[in-house]
Specification:
The complex is a heterodimer of chains A (796) and B (322).
Chain A lengths: L17 H12 L7 H12 L5 H15 L30 H6 L15 H14 L4 H8 L2 H8 L3 E2 L1 H5 L9 H7 L1 H13 L6 H36 L4 H16 L8 H18 L10 H11 L4 H17 L6 H6 L8 E5 L11 H13 L5 E6 L5 H12 L6 E4 H10 L4 H5 L1 E4 L3 E4 L3 E2 L5 E4 H9 L24 H33 L3 H5 L4 H4 L10 E4 L1 E4 L1 H17 L5 H9 L6 H9 L9 H18 L9 E2 L9 H5 L29 H10 L13 E4 L6 H17 L4 E6 L2 H9 L23 H10 L5
Parallel strand pairs in A: 2-3, 3-4, 7-9, 8-10, 9-11, 12-13
Antiparallel strand pairs in A: 1-8, 4-13, 5-6
Chain B lengths: L3 H4 L15 E10 L7 E6 L20 E4 L9 H5 L5 E3 L5 E3 L9 H5 L5 E4 L1 E3 L1 H9 L2 H7 L2 E5 L7 H13 L4 E5 L5 H8 L4 E5 L5 H8 L4 H12 L3 E8 L7 H13 L4 E8 L5 H6 L14 H12 L5 E3 L2
Helix pairs in contact in B: 4-6, 7-9, 10-12
The chains are: A alpha/beta (796), B alpha/beta (322).
Chain lengths: 796, 322
């Protein structure tokens, strides 16, 4: 590998400017609402284009939306471009699904999470638009295509393919670098060139022709859209009395006339060009997790070539961060349980290695982390790549940000991820050039259709099924294969055989469900604009949805690794090894949700080895449970010519997936959430963070190449001071040396400690760290706990 | 080999005889971050020659294992009552539990059946190898954070033979060693212990011998003598001053302490002011003991900072909190 050059000092970083403070205040005051414009425009367009080839219809619809939607420029903005008629409002995408929107229209304002305001007039408009879509949405078409058994298992929540079943796919990164440097005119030119080669007499090439034409229409539509902003800015400038603002508006106008059609030159042009692309992708489809990826890599050259001051550049970045947060998406009520907080999962990553293997850290890496600190917004999701050559100063800056308690940045391990991607067939340089999509999913940007959030697979439900001969104890239905009952198993091997049989059965059904949805998107919802920004769609003459990308994957996630592992470990230890419990006793207690059997539940909780304590007994079983899932997923292929690849992370699906699972042998009560990602069960890791990360590192993270997720919590006392930053680094570094994939840190707040008082079981490992002192938080009495809570955000 | 956690599920007094040498340990805490630099494993020895009124680990005072009961973990299964062969545990009408500690034979029957972890016995007899097995597990963290192992207490030098053996073993494995000691032990023992110690963390509770005896049960003369000896031998010291309201927090005492620390010269790496906290109080009750400082209010932030300023007149590296 190339030796790393000595790293520069951290650039002088600056805090939020007054302009940013004003813009942030305005952002916080904006209430999310439903915007009907897109739904109305796309419905009109679809009516106008009945009978035309689908790519042409999609491009025409995009043109109609971008020409007809309201646009605005807000005070203090230097970067422009809006998704909806109001900031933070959400558009509607009826082509994917709209039955649930119609059903939930009256509840959108009243639900507990992710509330959206909606006027009566808007409801009327939407209801009228939705009439057209009956039977035409990708959701309805896919459910016709799906095998009945697959749909049933989805409805029984053994897995959920909900994400792409009800929405666009998203989970992708455009080739931002290419657009900033070449412009959309170059994209149009390359489509025209390919079009010139078409032989109309070849039926396959005829399909290509329609796709390439749709690329040209879509890109022209985007350029027209950006020129609308140029015109608006110019008009606003002509009536603007404030000389400074007038100059700013004229500059905005100049830039919007230039980019993204032409290559960007200045830093502001590059940011504006980036923003238009990033924005339109999220108007074309509502697939979330559109990732800016290695922003520091493609943006730094523009920053360095510009004479702009650090202050001004930081302000522009901070403004961009607010623009990110203004994007929004409305989800159905049950999904808000899994995705609360209006998340868009736009993952932006800095650092790591370059394509040649040398360290990639640059000035922009630091400015990006500073933008996170300045705005304290939940978007974009900030991430940092770590490799052997990561400079200490980047580690330190990232640790400072982690300690602010917003849950970012997330840390990613090049030492595991690069080989994992190589094993999936990426070229060496592409593997080194990975970024992160969504929560934790690695891909090389601008070349991949990764379908990363293809499904969430309920590993705890499988535990329930494998103890009960395939019967769903919630509904009493026989849903899985007859793999035996716990009392029939002679030993642990029998139990594992039953677990494996259930996993294999349901992974197979899940793959069929995913492929049905995948085929539907390919046939009924190609995205010409997004496709034109990803290699090799233009060269191949195929949309992303039909397999035009250079790399294609499908990534379904296993959720509840710790529940599965700890359940199996508890049975092995207490039923088979120590014979403290009989199979009947255990099953009866599980069926009655431990009613009158609290001592038995405490035995399961406290006398069985638990994953997360650096205890090989439990850790090896968790590893095996995860591996069985991963190996099954690896067997399948998707309709885009790509392979399935497993992940082990939940987004927040651990909550809804847990809500259908009866009590489990890990001591978990019925219907309660599952463990988060590959993290140990809350309260079961009582040996501190070092033991916890050593346990998690024992899993095979390389095989789970769609990503694994570890959340690690700290009380502020554990990470205070300069040495606290060193200790955070040491935890990350050691976890990564041992083969961890991802880790992110949460700092325990007052609210968390209050929750620990009410739910002590979930916080058994919580320690307030004081010199030479020994005790767990939950073992203290209430008055003292109150005392600690009162002081928790004040450390000396 | 059993993990530290698994050791808590049962108790066998005979463990003390399982090897030629065992030590009584009441906790092993991984990821300790205030006790000697970097990420460390903290091994708490049971038994202490002092009886400080503010002791934050009262379960460390006695040199014998003892019952400790966390009332709010109890699920009321009453197995402890029915399993106790000495009939030493009684549930009262009001739901509270009375343990007849004199009748308890430390058989461990209650602990074994108390799945909820309310009934515990503190203290496990362990061999050096058993302790090192736990310590070794975080070796990688020590190397990435410049950490190591710290033997604390109680008072580790009270089990000097075991301590020296553990320190030697840690050194032979290339680990950085620290002790947290009150330094109240004979000069011979102290000299032998610090020979294998890289960093000595030690409290100075009061400079006045008489007041020291009132507060801790012993005079400070031997303590100060040991510290001087350690400094003369060129050992690295980190002095810690627990700042206890109404006990040792007079400006005169802090200044006198700092002056003494200053006189130890370059051996002193720094001085940590450890402000009084009440975290130990519930544990006194869990041992059925009365907390001598009940009702004492922790110092105000500004008062702690004033003490820091005073100390800084004589010592250059003063921190709050260790």
């Amino acid at each position: 590998m190339t030796k790393n050059p000595p790293i520069m000092a951290i650039p002088q970083l600056v805090g939020p400017s007054d302009r940013i403070k004003r813009v942030l205040d305005r952002f916080m005051d904006a209430a999310p609402a439903i915007c009907t414009e897109r739904a109305v425009l796309i419905t009109e367009s679809y009516k106008e284009t009945e009978g035309q080839p689908m790519p042409a219809r999609r491009a025409a619809a995009l043109d109609k939306i971008l020409s007809g939607m309201s646009i605005f420029i807000q005070d203090d903005e230097l970067l422009v471009g809006n998704q909806c008629s109001m900031p933070r409002s959400a558009p509607i995408f009826p082509e994917f699904s709209c039955k649930w929107v119609e059903e939930e229209l009256d509840r959108l304002e009243k639900r507990t999470a992710d509330v959206f305001l909606i006027s009566e007039d808007a409801k009327v408009k939407l209801r009228s638009a939705f009439e057209y879509w009956d039977g035409k949405t990708t959701n309805e078409i896919a459910s016709q295509l799906m095998p009945a058994e697959s749909l049933e298992a989805h409805n029984d929540v053994v897995y959920t393919v909900g994400n792409y079943f009800y929405n666009g796919v998203g989970h992708i990164s455009a080739d931002y670098s290419k657009i900033l440097n070449c412009g959309l005119n170059a994209v149009i030119a390359s489509a025209k060139k390919e079009l010139g080669k078409i032989d109309f007499t070849d039926p396959e090439q005829l399909t290509k022709m329609h796709f390439l034409k749709s690329v040209i229409t879509a890109n022209k539509a985007v350029i027209k859209f950006t020129k609308r902003f140029a015109k608006l800015a110019k008009e606003m400038a002509s009536s603007c009395k404030d000389k400074e603002r007038k100059a700013e508006l004229l500059e905005i106008s100049r830039i919007c006339n230039k980019v993204p059609a032409a290559p960007a030159e200045t830093f502001q042009e590059a940011l504006q060009s980036f923003w238009f692309i990033h924005l339109v992708i999220q108007i074309e489809s509502n697939g979330h997790s559109i990732s800016p990826m290695r922003f520091d890599q493609y943006m730094n050259p523009f920053y360095k070539a510009d004479s702009i001051s650090t202050e001004k550049a930081q302000e522009m970045l901070d403004l961009l961060w607010v623009k990110f947060s203004e994007l929004n998406k409305v989800r159905d009520e049950s999904s808000t349980m899994a995705f609360a907080g209006y998340p868009m999962f736009m993952n932006l990553i800095v650092g790591g290695m370059k394509r040649d293997g040398s360290d990639a850290t640059n000035d922009m890496s630091f400015l990006v982390l500073q933008a996170g600190a300045n705005t304290k917004l939940y978007a974009p999701s900030l991430s940092v790549r770590i490799h052997e050559g990561t400079p200490d100063i980047l580690y330190k800056k990232a640790a400072e940000l982690s300690r602010m308690g917003m849950g970012y940045p997330a840390y990613y391990n090049d030492r595991v991820i690069v080989p994992a991607l190589l094993a999936r067939g990426l070229d060496r340089e592409d593997a080194r050039d990975y970024g992160i999509i969504g929560c934790v999913e690695p891909q090389v940007g601008g070349k991949t259709e990764g379908w990363h959030d293809a499904a969430f697979f309920n590993m705890a439900k499988v535990i329930e099924l494998c103890l009960n001969d395939g019967v769903d104890k919630r509904t009493g239905k026989q849903i899985g294969p007859k793999s035996g009952k716990l009392k029939d198993f002679k030993n642990f091997e029998d139990l594992m055989a039953s677990y494996t049989a259930q996993i294999a059965h349901f992974v197979r059904l899940m793959a069929a469900a995913d492929n049905a949805v995948d085929m539907t998107h390919g046939k009924h919802c190609p995205l010409p604009f997004l496709s034109s920004l990803v290699e090799d769609c233009i060269a191949e003459g195929r949309s992303l949805q039909e397999g035009g990308a250079h790399y294609n994957f499908t990534g379904p996630q296993g959720v509840g690794v710790a529940n599965a592992g700890d359940s199996l470990a508890a049975i092995k230890k207490l039923v088979f090894d120590d014979k403290k419990l009989t199979a009947d006793e255990l099953c009866e207690a599980l069926e009655t949700d431990f009613e009158g059997k609290e001592d038995l539940r405490q035995m399961l909780l406290n006398r069985a080895p638990k994953y997360g304590n650096d205890n090989d007994y439990a850790d090896e079983i968790a590893k095996e449970a995860a591996l069985i899932y991963c190996n099954e997923v690896n067997r399948y292929t998707n309709p885009r010519g790509g392979k399935f690849q497993p992940g082990l992370y939940p987004a927040s699906a651990n909550v809804p997936l847990g809500s259908v699972v009866t009590a489990t042998p890990d001591g978990r009560k019925a219907w309660t959430p599952l463990a988060d990602g590959v993290s140990p069960i809350s309260g079961c890791d009582t040996c501190g963070p070092t033991a916890s990360v050593l346990s998690v590192a024992k899993l095979d993270h390389e095989i789970a190449s769609n990503g694994t997720l570890l959340n690690q919590k700290f009380h502020p006392s554990a990470i205070e001071g300069e040495k606290g930053l060193e200790n955070l680094k040491s935890i990350t570094e050691t976890y990564f040396q041992n083969g961890g994939f991802h880790v992110q840190y949460n700092v325990i707040s007052r609210e968390t400690l209050e929750d620990a008082q009410s739910n002590p079981e979930e916080y058994k490992g919580l320690v307030v760290r004081v010199a030479g002192y020994s005790a767990f938080f939950t073992a203290l009495d209430e008055s003292l706990q109150n005392d600690i809570i009162a002081r928790t955000e004040q450390t000396f | 080999m059993k993990t530290w956690k698994e050791r808590q599920h049962s108790f066998d007094l005979e463990d003390r005889n399982k090897a030629a040498m065992t030590g009584l340990v009441f906790d092993i805490q991984r990821f300790a971050v205030h006790d000697g630099g970097g990420i460390r494993t903290l091994v708490f020895f049971k038994g202490c020659p002092l009886s400080c009124k503010w002791c934050q680990n009262p379960e460390s005072m006695s040199s014998r294992p003892e019952i400790m009961r966390i009332p709010h973990f109890c699920i009321g299964c009453v197995k402890c009552v029915t399993e106790c062969p000495e009939k030493a545990i009684h549930f009262k009408e009001d739901g509270s539990v009375k343990i007849d500690r004199d009748s308890c034979s430390l058989c461990g029957a209650c602990v074994e059946k108390c799945y909820a972890g309310s009934m515990t016995i503190v203290g496990r007899y362990m061999t050096v190898d058993e302790v090192m097995e736990v310590v070794e597990r975080d070796r990688l963290f020590y190397s990435t954070s410049k950490g190591g192992v710290t033997f604390s207490g109680g008072e580790p030098t009270l089990q000097s033979e075991f301590l020296i053996s553990a320190l030697k073993e840690a050194h032979s494995r290339g680990l950085h060693t620290a002790i947290e000691t009150c330094a109240h032990t004979s000069s011979e023992i102290f000299a032998a212990v610090i020979e294998h110690t890289d960093l000595i963390l030690t409290d100075i509770k009061h400079m006045d011998p008489a007041r020291h005896k009132e507060l801790t049960g012993v005079s400070n003369e031997q303590i100060l003598k040991n510290l001087k000896m350690a400094a003369d031998k060129g050992k690295t010291l980190r002095i810690r001053v627990p700042l206890i309201p109404g006990c040792n927090d007079s400006p005169e005492n802090i200044s006198a302490t700092a002056a003494f620390v200053g006189s130890l010269g370059s051996a002193v790496e720094g001085l940590d002011i450890l402000p009084y906290h009440r975290l130990g109080e519930p544990k006194w009750a869990q041992l059925d003991r009365e907390y001598p400082l009940h009702g004492v209010v922790p110092l105000k932030r500004e008062d702690v900072f004033y003490m820091k300023e005073l100390a800084e007149r004589s010592v250059h590296n003063v921190t709050i909190g260790g």
